[in-house]
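Work package 3, deliverable 3.1, input record:
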Amino acid sequence: MTATKPFSATGNQMIAEAMRQADPDVMAAYPITPQTTIVENYAKFVANGAVTTEFVTVESEHSAMSACVGASAAGARVATATASQGLALMWEELFIAAGMRLPIVMANANRALSAPINIHGDHSDVMGARDTGWILLFAETAQEAYDNTVISFPIAEDPDVQLPVMTTLDGFITSHAMERCVMEDDETVRSFVGDYAPANGLLTSPTPLGAGMFANGDSYMKSRYMLRHAIQDSLPVIERVGKAWADTCGRPFDVVDAWECDDAELIVVVLGSAAGNVRHIARELRAAGKKVGVVRPRVYRPFPVKQIAEACKGAKAIAIMDRADSLGGQYGPLAVDVLGALASAGQSAPFHNYIYGLGGNDLTNDLVHKVFDDLEKLADGSLGTGGTSYLGMQEAEGAQNIWLG
Amino acid sequence: MSELIEIRWHARAGQGAVTAAKLVADTALLQGAYIQAMPEYGPERTGAPLKAYTRVSDAPIEVHNTIVNPHIVVVLDDTLLDSVDVTEGIKDDGTVILNTEMTATEAQARLGVPAGVKVAVVDASGIAIDTIGRDIPNTPIVGALAKVTGVVPVDLVKERLTETFGKKFSQEMIDANLRSVDRAYEEVQTA
Amino acid sequence: MKMPELDRFEDWAPEEFPKGYLCNAGTSVEYITGGWRSMRPVWDADKCTNCMMCWVVCPDSSIKVADEAMTGIDYDHCKGCGVCVHECRFGALEFIREDEAEVA
């Protein structure tokens, strides 16, 4: 194993490199900010003969994912990338890809959804794909975007998993910022990812097969039951593949990155790049003797229920930070998942849910300090539990009475 | 350096601030530092005021937000002073580097910064026109930054510049850029 | 691909379903839909010119053909839609009630 010397690259460049090393048979993609540079870089690899991929240019993301579904059903290794409105346009095919158990790997540069039009980073798009049956990985850095993309292929193609994987990074914040990165050499990645041997490819099977069948309620429900188990049971596989990659490259992998949680009393749960902002401040607070911890799910679907509950065990107060809102619901999507995990483990602690950073709105150090200040108030009871607020716009209050009456 | 250094760049779109922000980061990387460089993306077109950011540190950089309390502010166009509060949030012992024909003393008065803030001036546009033949002040001002702040050594800047530009430009153009870095390094003045 | 027996598909356990709801091709042959019929086409070989129009329009591939000539109707799969009868220009197909056919 040899890694490159450290070099500077954006998250999008790193994802394109990881995809180049995995060398999928087919890529069907349509450009959209802030994903465009992934497929742009990839198209260059195709043009320069650096990969064997058949690049299919299509007229929309709806067609892109349709082509990916077709190619994957045929038995090809398939990759693509999208963002925002593009992911939204793929919505119906996302269900088809998962329902047909097609191991497509797709990068998503997480971006806001219209209206108003906004090209910047938040999780509104990817949260719309939350319930589709795709495995969802969130990268904090450009380096992690690379590592997550490398492991996406063997996870997706594992015979026990056979599910599509979305490898996501925060639009602009991670997709376009230049950071220090390293890359393992092509041979290492190729042998780690391995060759894809589809179990039942329509063009690789010795006998003709039927796909995309109709199912009545009974068969449909049984089939979906198996899908639920498939994604649930993929967590140990994700962990195994992630750890194997960590052994190869020397960079750690955990489905939940629980920073200083062993004795933490004030815990923030947060996805993606913002976890770095929170840890940046948490280090200062730790140095000042505060028992703070940061919990970052690197895998969001399947949701690592046990690991989240375990990380939050000693918490006297929990802040859950959502970069997307669940409009009309009481809490953002991450908060609902975290609260479910705690409830099922019989744990509870005062908590507050923050909606932050929508449309790329900056998560400043001051705002992170505000969250930790609120956590202290939650812990000592001067702030009531169960509230939701838009961070930086609204003071945190206890559970808002429009919900509880 | 033993800590996180944060640099904020103010320029007009088209002046090469993003290239400069990346050049500094890439140079620091050659020294083994951790780096981050990013523009503030928006609907800018040529001439619109924009910001870019560079972070340099010995330790991995975790924070992913814009720089509101910079150690160093670099201004590539002094006409921005009329419309943008370029020194907003600057550290009390920070440094401002300004592309201008003003003297350092004039610039210090114009900026109205606290006494602890170091103000440096260089006519990067003039140097660029002399050497490169166009008003692209981004490479010379990195020479001035190297001299005034020591964040990156000037020789390494030139090494990195040669490597980056070598892929795109003629030797003549690379040499002109290197001369511009040297001249700004020599000519930068502090108050 | 190995699949459980089709005739008991309603009793398949969830784990018996092939991943991704795939199945072997041509399984509709094993699914006898002839019982859905209330009317049936009856073929008169003497009037038939083998123009094959009925073969073209039959939605259930139930016109049996061998050596470029019609040999009969596949009553295991014919659902009795009557399209062949409607399209036949030579009076070679008659449409009769299923109960009359059973008596005959």
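Chain A has 15 helices and 16 strands.
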